[in-house]
Amino acid sequence: MLTPRDVYQQTVANNRRLLALILLFPAALSIFVFACLKVFELIYNQGSDGYTADAIKLSDFWVVFLPIVLLIALLMTIFSLAQGKNMILSLTGAEPCPEDAEHSRVFHAVENVALAAGLPTPKVYLMKSSALNAFATGYSPKDAAITLTTGLVDRLSPLELEAVIAHEMGHIMNRDIRLNLFIITGIGMIGLFGELLLRTRTRGNSRGKGGGAVIILLAIGFGLYLFRLLVAPFIHMAISRTQEFQADATSAYLTRNPQALVDALIKISENPNVAVLANTAAFHSMCIFNPLNGLSHLLDTHPSIEARIKRLNEMS
Amino acid sequence: MIGIIILLVLVGIVVYGISLFNGLIAARQHIDEAWSTINTQLKRRYDLIPNMVKLIQGYMKHESDTLVKVTEARKMAMQAISPADKGKAENMLAGTLKSLFALSESYPELKADKSFVTAQETLSDVEAKIQATRQFYNSVVRTFNTKIAIFPSNIVANMLHMEKASYFELDADEAQKVQQRPDIQF
Questions:
Q1: I need a surface site. Which of A78, A231, A239, B61 has the fewest CB within 10 A?
Q2: What ipTM did this prediction achieve?
Q3: What are the tens digits of pLDDT across the range A113-134?
């Protein structure tokens, strides 16, 4: 069901969600890594004949792991803030939409959607591509921008275009870009630390004196690496898909016309592949449609078009 | 010990009450803000109409009746203050504008006039924007009205004698027309 929230309630809800994520992400990570550590300990002790390392205590684990988690969280915040500031728009080769008569309908649509959402009018960028796609950038609604491909502008009807813009406005209103930057940089950091710690093995002396500490580091590295490989993508996928459904719902709420978005999605699904966007993970979740459609389906950032249309039809 | 617990609970209740109070005040503030954005758009329309009327007058020798009605409806809409009155007056104005455009259909020269075409386009853009701002206004009114109706914020709202805010209604028929925007040719 569509629960109408105005922008103020949405802001409160999203700030809460971000806070929960910031707290829960390290907690989930800690539990996972500790479990890995225990498994590691078990295997190590079995393998070593006659020699058993001291059982790894929870307190020892925290002494080593807490600084690592805090460092990850800190770097995650710094990096996502820095990225948000000059959000890699230039990478895509998008240019500000010219304010001429030809594009007045684009501006009208963006202005109207922004007024209906009660948000400042975002900047509008155009990307030269015959493919149909759109994405939102910007850390907060104040410095938000919506980028549309020229193919999208050419091929969608005014109402369909408005529905797509309203979907992007939904991402802006829900602060999805901020949340995504946190998650993506977080996953990157965890992977980086995992790799770094795994490499300490080659330098450290794994047996004998100081072996215990190295093993802990090694096990933590292994845990982080495993988390990044197996758990993090699923968390990201789950959050991203929820965001897509939410943005679709916001679009329906703003335009009062879910059918227009359905029509637009069908048109877009025929040709959403934008090569430039496919290389930049940070953009995927913000696009109206997965820009590398047809690759992996299990970990798609977007729900299937059938599921999206089904939910939109329930709204109309 | 029991004294401290009672004190903490009391402090908690007071803090919670204050946050409810602030929430209500903020929600009412949001209504005022949204209302002023509607008025900005409505004023744009009021400003457009005199020029429009003057332009049409040049082409029409008779039937100035419709023009007079538009001017009067504009005056009435400008004088209306409360959202409910404003809604009614704006509906009237939109109705007269519609008949004005229907009339202009029979004047090919007028329809060919470039400044008339631009004026018409601007007017339909303004109408779409009125519709958009109205939607936002109504959404914050809904939030506020829910807040003063549900527990526990209704207690604070009663203490402050807060009353339900009224929605800004436009005719469903009119809303439909604005949404379809038939006047804009892309």
A1: B61
A2: 0.72
A3: 999 888 999 999 998 888 888 9
Domain assignment present for A119:
yes
Q: Whole-model pTM?
A: 0.79
Q: Indicate the pLDDT class of residue A1, thresholds 50, 70 and 90.
A: very low
Shared-domain flag, residues A208 and A234: yes
In a domain, A171, yes or no: yes
Do A267 and A165 sit in the same domain of this protein? yes
- Distance linking the first and last C-alpha atoms of chain A: 11
Helix (H, G, I), strand (E, B) or coil at A60: helix
Domain-embedded: residue A2: no
CB contact under 8 A, A112 and B129: yes
Among candidate residues A162, A168, A195, A314, the one labeled active-site is: A168
Least confident of A163-177, A184-198, B74-88, B136-150: A184-198
Which range in A161-175, A183-197, A265-279 is most confidently predicted, on average pLDDT? A161-175
DSSP H helices, chain B, are 2-59, 64-79, 83-104, 108-112, 114-149, 153-159, 172-180
Q: Name every chain A residue with its beta carbon within 8 A of the beta carbon of B27.
A: 8
Domain identity same for A170 and A100 = yes
A163 contacts chain B (CB < 8 A): no
Q: Is residue A1 part of a domain?
A: no
Pairs across A and B, CB distance < 8 A:
49
A244 is catalytic: no
Helix (H, G, I), strand (E, B) or coil at A96: strand
Residue whose C-alpha is closest to residue A253's, from A65, A128, A118: A118
Which domains, and CATH codes, for chain B?
2-180 (1.20.1440.20)
Please tell me whether residues A95 and A172 are part of one structural domain: yes
Mean local confidence (pLDDT), A68-89: 71
Shared-domain flag, residues A172 and A93: yes
Q: What is the DSSP pairing of strand A145-149 with strand A123-127?
A: parallel
Domain of residue A234: give its range.
7-87+181-240
